């Protein structure tokens, strides 16, 4: 059995070397791309070349665009396609490394199938875990936006009611929230502000903001602003207040869900603690009975 594992190991290593040779100089910039959770950029060029030749976006369009949509929400849509390919290359790199380690383990254990089987199973499970983690990040980002949007909208209502224009109210609110610049909502709002200050119309900047967030509540906010901001006055404030009430109800629902999730996570530690207390209290009693 040893020749089989040595041949498989040689095939994996030589295949990666051939792909690296074909991709050399073509994907050099991928090592400079920064994306949360990506750690194997230096191994990405061969896998990027493989993805290009396989034409993954054409053969598996639903899978590719689902990943791309999640990546764009995390990294933005400017280079969303490139980051999607980098994420897929990361998945393939992990699978390749696990297969290599599995083959090496089988070779070192005198042809035992356990190593390659474990490597193959992990080569499938780890990419699935990466996709699941990506979707969890998207859900967490949307939740953070939903929790912060009502407070931001309240500040806009107060400033517009005091006589400010919408642009001035947004700019002032962002200046007051500099410590939250890394928050997903304020990061997108700052991008929107940079766009309208660099020549985009306010409507174009707002539509881009809504598209990048990809959340129904944000779309409702931008629609209400674009439909009413030219009118100004009490009508605009009333429209925003109606929206604010619905957003606060949505925030209450999200907070309630988070509370229920937190309480459910405490059940197992509480049961474990109860068992420990029972053992500590009951052990002396059983010892006395034995005596």
TrEMBL record:
Q: Does the keyword Transmembrane apply?
A: yes
Q: What is this protein called?
A: Type II secretion system protein F (GspF)
Query: Organism source for this protein?
Result: Fontibacillus phaseoli
Q: Which InterPro entries is this protein grouped with?
A: T2SS_GspF_dom
Q: Where is the Type II secretion system protein GspF domain?
A: 152-283
What Pfam families does the database record attribute to this sequence? T2SSF
Keyword terms, alphabetized: Cell membrane, Membrane, Transmembrane, Transmembrane helix
What is the protein's membrane topology class? Multi-pass membrane protein
Offer a single GO CC term for the protein. Answer: plasma membrane
* Segments passing through the bilayer: 83-107, 113-131, 266-289
**Ribosomal protein: present as a keyword of the record?**
no
| Record localization | Cell membrane
């Amino acid at each position: 059995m040893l020749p089989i594992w040595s041949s498989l190991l040689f095939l994996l290593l030589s295949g990666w070397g051939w792909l690296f040779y074909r991709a050399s100089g073509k994907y050099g910039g991928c090592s400079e791309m920064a994306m949360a959770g990506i750690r194997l950029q230096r191994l990405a060029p061969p896998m990027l070349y493989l993805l290009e030749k396989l034409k993954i976006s054409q053969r598996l369009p639903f899978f590719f665009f689902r990943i791309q949509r999640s990546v764009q929400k995390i990294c933005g849509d400017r280079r969303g396609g490139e980051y999607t390919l980098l994420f897929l290359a990361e998945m393939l790199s992990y699978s390749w490394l696990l297969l290599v380690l599995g083959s090496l383990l089988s070779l070192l254990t005198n042809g035992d199938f356990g190593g390659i089987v474990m490597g193959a199973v992990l080569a499938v499970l780890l990419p699935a875990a990466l996709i699941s983690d990506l979707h969890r990040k998207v859900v967490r980002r949307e939740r953070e936006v939903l929790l912060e949007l009502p407070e931001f909208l309240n500040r806009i209502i107060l400033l517009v009611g005091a006589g400010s224009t919408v642009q001035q109210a947004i700019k002032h609110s962002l200046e007051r929230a500099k410590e939250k610049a890394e928050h997903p909502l304020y990061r997108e709002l700052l991008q929107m502000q940079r766009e309208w200050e660099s020549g985009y119309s306010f409507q174009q900047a707002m539509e881009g903001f809504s598209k990048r967030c990809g959340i129904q509540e944000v779309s409702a906010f931008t629609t209400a602003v674009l439909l009413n901001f030219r009118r100004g006055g009490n009508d605009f404030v009333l429209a925003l207040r109606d929206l604010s009430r619905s957003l606060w109800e949505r925030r209450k629902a999200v907070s309630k869900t988070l509370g229920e999730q937190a309480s459910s996570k405490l059940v197992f530690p509480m049961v474990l603690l109860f068992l420990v207390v029972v053992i500590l209290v009951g052990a002396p009693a059983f010892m006395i009975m034995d005596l």
